[in-house]
Amino acid sequence: MADASSHDTIRAEFIEKTGLFSQAEGLPRIAGRVLGLLIYDGDVVPFGELAVKLQVSRASISTSVRLLEERGLVKRVNKPGERQSFFQLAPDPYGTMLKVVQQRNRSFQAEIAETIESLPKDADAQGRLKAYYDFYASIGAAISVALTEVNKPEVLEAGQQPATLKGFKDDE
Amino acid sequence: MADASSHDTIRAEFIEKTGLFSQAEGLPRIAGRVLGLLIYDGDVVPFGELAVKLQVSRASISTSVRLLEERGLVKRVNKPGERQSFFQLAPDPYGTMLKVVQQRNRSFQAEIAETIESLPKDADAQGRLKAYYDFYASIGAAISVALTEVNKPEVLEAGQQPATLKGFKDDE
DNA sequence: CGATCCGTTCAGTTGCAACTGAACAAACTT
DNA sequence: AAGTTTGTTCAGTTGCAACTGAACGGATCG
Known about the structure:
The structure is a homodimer of 172-residue chains. With 172 residues, chain A is mainly alpha-helical.
């Protein structure tokens, strides 16, 4: 990759990446960028600053934070003296993300189960739909594993990392 | 979901559901429906029939099957006597789906690792980005678990009773 | 009391991926 | 040979979600 640019550039790029990642999870890009900013800064960030820093309209910020609040990823803080709303990462945001995925997965799984049960017993599609059902069941089980894993830091499966983190000694 | 009447209706609804599910995995809806049809019918299906059965243009079928082939989910079969191309589910399609997800996840993980490494050592964002990184690491590990699970033969030959599905319990 | 700031809502725009129709080349038929 | 059938490609359309600007109500300040 390119040589380390300025600190602000790194920050901006990280925020942009998070926006793209979040799109894969069904969030609008701006909401993902809000998330990225809150992760990076770690601070309590005022509403207006989100609009300015991310260069988007306040309307977009409004809907984005609403989505993020609904998902339990972001928490709104209203300070008594201040007029603005402030936002920060909710506690355990990653566990919450997994729970959302879990929920959606279970919904799919249940629908397939319904289909299977409404089939005539002798339908030869039975076995194939069962395999499809098992697929979602496996994913569900795996997410449960990840949920327990997320809450205990520093525990990583060796060999899963695409790149070694030089700054950290989480291996061995 | 209302109790499905005819067998064909059940089939059509399943195909439609699969189309919607697949959208969540980043596939176009038509590609997902092709997948659903192949899962349900289990047969080798000719190109033209896909267009007719799914009520879409041949152009859409062409691009859809290309995407599905690229992902390794569908296999093209050209029969010697016949002019048409035929399609069927690839072996181990569910394992393949998981591998795609795994790949994307690792890519995200690697990008975050790059960001962390380019940060100054004393940046206070370090810890928070590490937590974000760990999040993806956990997911990666979970997918690995699911991958071994999916490939277990699990003997679900054609006569499996749907009763085993009824009242399935959420784990955890 | 205005005046100003703040966040939400909503009608309109915009950008983009999905989808189509038509033109095309290859392979086969007659 | 011309004529079919088949799958791909590509320019154009379409549908939809993301995003914006403006209007609004509520709160605070002067």
